[in-house]
Amino acid sequence: MSDIKKVVLAYSGGLDTSVIAKWIQETYNCEVVTFTADLGQGEEVAPARAKAEALGIKEIYIEDLREEFVRDYVFPMFRANTIYEGEYLLGTSIARPLIAKRLIEIANETGADAISHGATGKGNDQVRFELGAYALKPGVKVIAPWREWDLTSREKLMAYCEQHDIPVDFNKQGKKSPYSMDANLLHISYEGGILEDPWAEAEEDMWRWSVSPEAAPDQPEYIELTYEKGDIVAIDGKKMTPAEVLTYLNEVGGKHGIGRLDIVENRYVGMKSRGCYETPGGTIMLRAHRAIESLTLDREAAHLKDELMPKYAEVIYNGYWWSPERLMLQEMIDASQQTVNGDVRLKLYKGNVIVAGRRSDDSLFDESIATFEDDAGAYDQKDAEGFIKLNALRLRIAASKGRSPLKLK
Amino acid sequence: MSDIKKVVLAYSGGLDTSVIAKWIQETYNCEVVTFTADLGQGEEVAPARAKAEALGIKEIYIEDLREEFVRDYVFPMFRANTIYEGEYLLGTSIARPLIAKRLIEIANETGADAISHGATGKGNDQVRFELGAYALKPGVKVIAPWREWDLTSREKLMAYCEQHDIPVDFNKQGKKSPYSMDANLLHISYEGGILEDPWAEAEEDMWRWSVSPEAAPDQPEYIELTYEKGDIVAIDGKKMTPAEVLTYLNEVGGKHGIGRLDIVENRYVGMKSRGCYETPGGTIMLRAHRAIESLTLDREAAHLKDELMPKYAEVIYNGYWWSPERLMLQEMIDASQQTVNGDVRLKLYKGNVIVAGRRSDDSLFDESIATFEDDAGAYDQKDAEGFIKLNALRLRIAASKGRSPLKLK
Amino acid sequence: MSDIKKVVLAYSGGLDTSVIAKWIQETYNCEVVTFTADLGQGEEVAPARAKAEALGIKEIYIEDLREEFVRDYVFPMFRANTIYEGEYLLGTSIARPLIAKRLIEIANETGADAISHGATGKGNDQVRFELGAYALKPGVKVIAPWREWDLTSREKLMAYCEQHDIPVDFNKQGKKSPYSMDANLLHISYEGGILEDPWAEAEEDMWRWSVSPEAAPDQPEYIELTYEKGDIVAIDGKKMTPAEVLTYLNEVGGKHGIGRLDIVENRYVGMKSRGCYETPGGTIMLRAHRAIESLTLDREAAHLKDELMPKYAEVIYNGYWWSPERLMLQEMIDASQQTVNGDVRLKLYKGNVIVAGRRSDDSLFDESIATFEDDAGAYDQKDAEGFIKLNALRLRIAASKGRSPLKLK
Amino acid sequence: MSDIKKVVLAYSGGLDTSVIAKWIQETYNCEVVTFTADLGQGEEVAPARAKAEALGIKEIYIEDLREEFVRDYVFPMFRANTIYEGEYLLGTSIARPLIAKRLIEIANETGADAISHGATGKGNDQVRFELGAYALKPGVKVIAPWREWDLTSREKLMAYCEQHDIPVDFNKQGKKSPYSMDANLLHISYEGGILEDPWAEAEEDMWRWSVSPEAAPDQPEYIELTYEKGDIVAIDGKKMTPAEVLTYLNEVGGKHGIGRLDIVENRYVGMKSRGCYETPGGTIMLRAHRAIESLTLDREAAHLKDELMPKYAEVIYNGYWWSPERLMLQEMIDASQQTVNGDVRLKLYKGNVIVAGRRSDDSLFDESIATFEDDAGAYDQKDAEGFIKLNALRLRIAASKGRSPLKLK
């Protein structure tokens, strides 16, 4: 353990990572650099400086990464209409690669040879942090205290704090939550506590970012999103940066009770876990992006994306953002978005995101062909006969040879 | 045209297929057999007998196919969590193969050598009817009047009616709808009229099966669905047949404003079209099936299903229900459902279908492993290190050879 | 038929397209522009000028497209290790989009409003020509004489020639072949004649480009191919252009009896057909490209390519080169090839292409890790335990709940 | 280490597993049960009894599993035309699940609580053994000596043998091979030695099962394989069991220099390795199975299989034979094979497997439709126009809106 000289720690300023900061210094007898990022989690990051200093840290990084996060991670992911296992919008997964990247960049800047994080040995986040770190700096060492130490209960942790003068009220943001939570501009997640029983309904006072549909306004609200190359660039005609877009959509979505999710998911490490998520802005973006694509994307381009989406989601969920396969998929996805431009009009009401209209200069909807009225020859209905006949040919030949599709075997 | 002797016509009893029944007799100088099915469209089918007789039809088939429809078509499709283009629940698509099958079976019973239908040359339904027919009876002839005749405007159609004594008030179900509609137990669809402008919002009075979320009750309602092998067999503890299940879910869903959809979709014949759909029960079933699978299905089984779902949906949408590829996919899907048993508790409220709980004797959720509390050694966190190290190995080797995942090119 | 003013015809100079050139002028009363390309089919294209002039053609295009063909079509396709239905190297399919593109470009230059070709109504080539043409010039008209005229037998064709002074010896290249053939720098194909019986073995004297393995030299020959970004840029240390590469590999491959193929394939129009192909250079390139990728490509990048290859092959086979989905797939494929650099050494012997070695500065093969000898700690075997344990976790949980993988149902 | 009572060891009778047998007894102070299987590796298994007895083993299992191996593992795999990374026929991978299954069954019979094997911590085989074991007996313990002990060099191993009276000449089968080898009825593999340099050509005297193409007979040989439901049931008209089929094809293939392979592959544990393989019978079976499928399998069924094959191969390669996803894929594959019946005629010559003919009562090849001659109306060429027009519609609409497929971006 003596060969590690300097460690960059993903430091939230909370109790756990404060203990880690101390534990690493003590256990590895090495320097610790803290890195605290504002990813939109809704807590002040500035106080992390004083806390880190109190722990004896000399090199302290505190950064606002909200724009980078949304622009280079969230938006590219939404171009693919990405959902994991049919439900989850990957709010935690998509933040990890950015943190991993900054940990490594800071390690390179500060001459550190190791990184550390506060993720447990049961979850996906350890994988995401470490895969990213190894991919970016292959020789880096990783300290994952939760897999190493013996502070395996809250009591031992408290005893350690007392012993090392770590102020325990660090973590008070109102009452102590019974849930394990993670938040960033895309979502907030809840695990543990009563959620460990998948039959138990989440309690109303758990949710933090959204009102319940019942408590949402009785009046619907319309918003209009403007897309360029698959990304939202303006809302209701007002230009916004990526982080502004997501911030705004979180507000308006949360106000209307949009984006709550309660699922059982399959972790990469092999177990099922139950999680609740609030993703107001993301829920709006997913539906709106599909709507603008429905008008502007070629059918086979759209279907190709749909067929590859589950894989792309899995790649991100499992922590392979910094992998060749993700980059290849991204090239393909981005190539499809050149013409995904235009406006989507949405109605928000008590948990519902309702598409009320979509329009685009790049629309492939051809009213003159699609119409039920006279199309003046734009489409020759007789073409359909040959189309069907030849598409049926293989089926007709098979049937004429005695095969019945009523039964395969 | 003289070589056709007898035609089985998919006959709704409405104006269009009545004209077709007459037109075929006149044009092809052949017998017509009518086939009218109750698929849950919500209209009486019995009157079709008198109408058909008035048109001179001798062989008249009227059948209640609701149970077969849900049991053998809707339920198998929902086992795959099937959605076309991320949104559409395939309500029309899934009914066509059953009609095609009955048309052919009746043709075989009655010695008919042709079938006919009232679908236009622009849509998907002609393809679905005819692919099914050819796959089941390869030498069958198809009469598709809308691709053949010159009754291309409402005026010409009316003139034809007058000329042939076809009562025009056939089609009065209250006011004449400006929309082209199709209904069965799974959904009702709307196309045409003002919907031809994708920017225009659907009018409230278009919708027929559901109230708007705004008009839905202010009190949420909980229901509990019981699954066996991926299908719902009971609701709130009461055993129900497949058609009873869907009927009940349509009622309760419609009451709570659930299942409205407004999309632009890509037709198989190559054009985009805009459609609105009401699928109250289907919307509930999709979410509930995912919930019960989330607890009972292995991760890789679930991901394999997710990766193949878009293809399976496309196969159904395009009309290839009666094809070897659909049967192969179905074998795979059904094989996965043996353990998809248990209960899902849902909260329905103003358009929202909220999963409130799921439980199963076949649950793969292992609380003793997943817990954030002490797991008594059920899971060794140290295993994660090796897991990550080896999963990272290819990335580390690449990085050590100078490759940067920050940029592929 | 009178509204067509000028047609660009894909003109081989052979009998069939000469008849077509005349038939179009006569039938449509319009001008014909001929386009003859050297794609490496091994016949002189220059004589096409005099032949076209004799048919009264005023605008005659004769072009050497060999470099463009290999560089922009063959090489990109081989980057994906493309094979259709496990066997076919797509020799005909890949030439059609280039011809379609030139037909349309010439139509634009000459003010033509239509294109024409000599492909029959049963095959894939009509589809490939016309899809390409429509994608590049949506309003273009297409004249496909084989689908239109009544010259449906050889006798009628000969009578037409006599009647219109078209010299029939046009087509004598030695004896009249009983096969329908197509050739370009990638391959030569044979269909029809005795090949219509899939049980009949092709006759030795059918093959034109290669000797039989039996007749090939008794001495093997080694060659060394140098790759840059997935394409061959030198052979045995000598820099070559793309067309030079393929020309050389055809020669050396044909000499060693390499690249004969005899298959039954599934046409896009719905029937099975039996074809024989000679693809000496392509057969070498396929194996060599896999060899250089095996050393330089990341595992998951390679597997992603492998999973998408069948679709990419189908897209090309079916004629969708000029489609968004092909372009998206190409982006992904090309993105993977940046590091596919290095040398492959091959042994050619009597039909065999044997990989004798591969090396690369971009190699990901790490001998220090892979070695069976002492690896000095490069790889910690203990990591494997955690790797296996967590990969097995879902299986262990399932088994502990009583599920047996010995039987799914 | 004291909590293990009895271990079932996969015992080859060779030096390494003899050392392991002793080492386990000594280290874990527990009973060892040996299991030795004849999978067609070409060595006597009977001598394993005496060797095991000499090591103090009381419970000794020696079994001939050749028929089960080919019938339940090799044949099902070949129904999918399975190849890993475009080249490898999975000869080692497919034997492991059978061994894992027997290890567990014997553990259950003998009351053992652990299994052990002689695979190293760098390879795929440890994963395949252990995943299978955990899937079949979730609480089983695994002893993997190569990951645990300190006998990490040949010298230490020899010292251990001397110290424990283990006869070292156990392993003399002629000279000591410089290669790490594995053999069963499907193949023999070579790794290590000079093969660790991917640029070095394998030496001729390494190969054991096949002559070189150069040394093969100058006369080709024809054989005829008869298929039922995708499996070979007779050769040259003679009924054979699965193991007889493969034994015969290995002989005739090896005689003709067929089935040598030299590749660099990607291991599941994350490294590239170079291996040489001899798979004479498998190479013949792969080509022949594609040939019979080409005649009898529907196009879309075949393409669906092709698209999923890489995943199926990966599942087997990575060791997930006993997983729900493999079973699901197998259901789908097997469902497609009901009509894969008929004969394939092959010509074997100096390394080449040449398809000379295929025929079947279940043939979907329709000569009356495919013919270049007059088809008497079996196929209406005019149908092709509508087919192309509608398939082109989306491309034409896009082009008419100004999109050019010449450039995506």
UniProtKB/TrEMBL annotation, chains A, B, C, D:
- Which ranges carry the Arginosuccinate synthase-like N-terminal domain? 6-167
Indicate which residues the UniProt annotation says bind ATP. Answer: 10-18, 37, 118
| Chain ranges of the Arginosuccinate synthase C-terminal domain | 179-397
Instruction: Please give one Pfam family short name.
Output: Arginosuc_syn_C
Which SUPFAM superfamilies does the annotation name?
Adenine nucleotide alpha hydrolases-like, Argininosuccinate synthetase, C-terminal domain
Residues annotated as coiled-coil are none
Q: Which Gene3D superfamilies match?
A: Argininosuccinate synthetase, chain A, domain 2, HUPs, Single helix bin
Q: In which pathway does it act?
A: Amino-acid biosynthesis; L-arginine biosynthesis; L-arginine from L-ornithine and carbamoyl phosphate: step 2/3
Amino acids binding L-citrulline: 88, 93, 124, 128, 180, 189, 265, 277
Specify the signal sequence span. Answer: none
Write out the annotated subcellular location: Cytoplasm
Catalytic reaction(s) noted? L-citrulline + L-aspartate + ATP = 2-(N(omega)-L-arginino)succinate + AMP + diphosphate + H(+)
Q: Does the keyword ATP-binding apply?
A: yes
Which cellular components does GO assign to this protein?
cytoplasm
PROSITE patterns assigned: ARGININOSUCCIN_SYN_1, ARGININOSUCCIN_SYN_2
Q: Which PANTHER family match?
A: ARGININOSUCCINATE SYNTHASE
Which HAMAP family does the UniProt entry name for this protein?
Arg_succ_synth_type1
Q: What is this protein called?
A: Argininosuccinate synthase
Q: What organism is this sequence from?
A: Natronospirillum operosum
Identify the gene encoding this protein: argG
